Amino acid sequence: MDQIKIGKFISECRKEKNLTQNELAEKLGITDRAVSKWERGICLPDAGLMIALCKLLGITVNELLTGEKIDMKNNEEKMDENLVQLAKKNEESNRMLLKAEMMLVFLVVVMLCGVEIICNRFIESNFSRTLITIGGFVIALIVAFFGIHIETKAGYYECKHCRYKYVPKIKSVLFAMHIGTTRYMKCPECGKKSWQKKVLK
After folding, report:
1. How far apart are CA 47 and CA 69, in angstroms?
2. If phi over 0 gives left and psi between -120 and 50 gives alpha, with beta otherwise, what is residue 192?
3. Would you say the C-alpha torsion 179, 181, 185, 187 has a positive or negative sign?
4. Where does the chain show beta strands of DSSP type E?
């Protein structure tokens, strides 16, 4: 999916409608900086804004994602290509989120080990040791919360019994036994517990 091409297409369609970036932004309830980022190919419009944007520009979502006007003969083919591209983009985004989660876990472990070493070797006061240890654990809890948030946003889990695909709630993720990205959870569909692996596609 060519973001530069899509950006130029948004700009062309906006100008055809005699709209400034600011006017388009106002109609969509966003800032003109967001429109500017789209048109420069820095990012794509959020999914929630695409339909409203397309209505204002007089184009289809398929044309928006293709970055050009589409002949009706090629519409279905282009739609399939765009769906595949969006799926790939989503999968890559999920992979990046999981890498970030793993990095957070690694940093927390290193930080807690560092806190323990500093307390045992360099701090003599028990009060100071306690404060530093508590501070380390508070930071670890904050980072763990972000990790769990990432866990619920990237991909989904599939029940081994009924093949139901779902995104678990934070509470389920928090209290589930896990090995890497595989968690022992109860399926919300069939109610059975099983080891369920994270699926990105």
Report:
1. 20
2. beta
3. negative
4. 156-158, 165-166, 177-179, 182-186, 193-199
* CA 73 distance to own-chain centroid: 34
Contact (Cβ atoms closer than 8 angstroms) between residue 196 and residue 160: yes
Q: Which residue has the tokens 């048109």?
A: 39
pLDDT digits (tens, 9 = 90+) for 170-201: 778 778 888 877 889 999 889 899 998 887 76
Name the residue with tokens 């990205």.
181
Spatial contact of 63 and 55, defined as CB atoms under 8 Å apart:
no
Length in residues, the chain: 201
Report phi then psi at 47, rounded to 5: -55, -35
Tell me the pTM: 0.49
Contact between residue 108 and residue 144 where contact means Cβ atoms under 8 Å apart: yes
190: which residues sit within 8 A by CB, 6+ positions away? 159, 161, 162, 164
